[in-house]
Design brief:
Layout (H helix, E strand, L loop, with lengths): L2 H11 L4 H9 L4 H6 L2 H8 L3 H11 L6 H10 L16 E4 L3 H4 L7 E4 L1 H7 L11 H24 L8 H20 L5 H4 L6 E3 L1 H15 L9 H22 L1 E2 L2 E2 L5 E2 L5 E4 L7 H32 L12
Antiparallel strand pairs: 1-2, 3-7, 4-5, 6-7
Helix pairs in contact: 1-2, 4-5, 13-14
Length: 324
């Protein structure tokens, strides 16, 4: 996954319009730069209008949604848009049903998972034919979460064997092929060793995994997302936690990187070292705590995915990575 694309997703998840997020990320903008630069600087340096720069600044000053609430919301939706059920795209946005600017309400009841397309529609002003109303969002959220509960119960109790319908067995076969493809191209069983020394240092190869996971989505549109909803939800949890940790390692605060350029150590591994210069003692503590928390959450999601795969997809060799 390219850094530009990761920046775009990050901007969208702050509530930025997907089209503006695409252009801003393509011009080299990330959250840290938007927070650090003025509207005038954003306009002159990044080829966006003053109105667009003001919109970017407005979005990135929002208070973060509580992690537990976000996890609960995404899990209850199987990481899918509550309106199109994932048919329009697989990227998700946590959208405020009543605009954040009106209430600063980050509670569960005021949040809904939408894809970028439906998120844009939800923000359209005007007649009902042009937008999505608050009652419609609330009703669709309730219906989709009820459906997800039924889907997950059925999936958890479904045994796929030779007696199962052909369509179910073929879907499982496709999921298995996609998983094998993924394991072949990323050092899946080595990921925790790459981040073992965080927050002081990490193996730069950890960031390269993003490119291969993005390639999976692009190269196998017929095989991703997975047909097994429990597999997709478990993988999405792993992927979401990876992205959070990726951003902390790859970016910085107010334009100052958290890590210095990678150096080749005695073992031949390229290690990025923690950059403590330019931050106060308190800021460094906060950064280290954020990295440590993201590391622990990623490790939990990663180990949960491993356990799920071993129990449900034993035919997939997790250690089949072949370095180029």
């Amino acid at each position: 996954m390219k850094r530009v694309e990761l920046n775009e997703q990050s901007l969208v998840r702050y509530g930025v319009n997907s089209e503006l997020a695409s252009r801003a990320a393509g011009n080299g903008l990330a959250i840290g730069k938007i927070k650090a630069l003025s509207v005038a600087e954003l306009t002159s340096l990044y080829m966006i209008s003053a109105e667009e720069a003001a919109e970017l600044k407005r979005c990135v000053v929002r208070a973060p949604i509580d992690k537990e609430i976000a996890n609960q919301l995404l899990s209850a939706s199987n990481f899918s848009c509550n309106l199109c059920k994932g048919n329009k795209g697989h990227t998700f946005i946590i959208h405020h049903i009543t605009p954040y600017e009106q209430t600063q309400d980050n509670s569960y009841d005021n949040l809904i998972v939408l894809c970028p397309s439906d998120h844009d529609i939800a923000h359209r002003p005007g007649a009902l034919t042009l937008g999505i109303t608050k009652p419609q969002l609330i009703a669709e959220k309730a219906k989709w979460e009820d459906s997800v509960r039924i889907i997950n119960i059925n999936a958890a109790t479904r045994a796929v064997d030779v007696a199962a319908p052909v369509s179910i067995r073929l879907n499982r076969d496709e999921d298995v092929l996609t998983l094998k493809y993924l394991m072949y191209f990323i050092p899946f069983t080595s990921l925790l060793s790459h981040i073992y020394n965080l927050p002081s240092a990490f193996n730069i190869d950890f960031l390269d995994v993003a490119t291969h996971m993005e390639t999976l989505m692009l190269d196998r549109p017929h095989g991703y997302p997975f047909t097994d909803p429990l597999l997709q939800a478990t993988y999405n949890d792993y992927l979401g936690k990876y992205v959070v940790l990726f951003h902390l390692l790859d970016k910085g605060t107010n334009g100052i990187p958290h890590f210095l350029s990678a150096d080749d150590d005695l073992s031949g591994k390229f290690m990025a070292r923690r950059n403590y210069r330019g931050f106060s003692f308190e800021e460094n503590n906060q950064i280290n705590q954020a990295i440590e928390s993201a590391k622990v959450q990623f490790a939990d999601a990663y180990l949960n995915l491993i356990s799920f795969l071993r129990n449900n997809y034993p035919e997939v060799a997790l250690g089949s990575y072949k370095p180029a």
